């Protein structure tokens, strides 16, 4: 099996069967149920599509993946760190992820990961109160959000206003059923798009995440 870098991001790799990988920042460490293997004397971790909305969005042709070595990332809803670990691989030791989660039990699952990864800081905070971590989180290159709340758009926009640099990027994973279980997801995603545009954000791409994540979409935005 051979790997080659994605044209959209040289630190994400694809094999001849279309599976995605990142180069393991911590050799020997598995974060979840992903496969780990060696290729050309380097270790790679499979980025499982059904375990990560970001990898699913890449597979669904979101296009540009503007996450680079050395980037600072604010991750809202980091949970157990599945997706964050792959972002950690991409940004390397010169980058940093500030991971916010409100659930102590879930955040404890992150501890074994960040014990060996110096580029992730886990913060027990409420992403609905972005001013509560101003003393820790600086301006960032990326805001990534995966928060299943009815007001998840408001959370995203407020955190962008506080933390995202000009010309920075945001990934918003929208779970339609968390916003309104009775409304057609297409209409919800249309409403989300309008909210982002009304906030003067440049929407670079919107992709639906089926069949990997039902009733989900990923929005990639740029802060003007």
UniProtKB/TrEMBL annotation:
InterPro entries: Fibrillarin (IPR000692), SAM-dependent_MTases_sf (IPR029063). It holds the Pfam family Fibrillarin. One of its GO terms (molecular function) is rRNA methyltransferase activity. S-adenosyl-L-methionine binds at residues 82-83, 101-102, 126-127, 146-149. Its EC number is 2.1.1.-. The keyword Nucleotide-binding does not apply. One of its GO terms (biological process) is tRNA processing. Keywords: Methyltransferase, RNA-binding, rRNA processing, Transferase, tRNA processing. It is an enzyme of class 2 (transferase). Interacts with nop5. Component of box C/D small ribonucleoprotein (sRNP) particles that contain rpl7ae, FlpA and nop5, plus a guide RNA. Involved in pre-rRNA and tRNA processing. Utilizes the methyl donor S-adenosyl-L-methionine to catalyze the site-specific 2'-hydroxyl methylation of ribose moieties in rRNA and tRNA. Site specificity is provided by a guide RNA that base pairs with the substrate. Methylation occurs at a characteristic distance from the sequence involved in base pairing with the guide RNA. Belongs to the methyltransferase superfamily. Fibrillarin family. This is Fibrillarin-like rRNA/tRNA 2'-O-methyltransferase. It comes from Nanobdella aerobiophila.
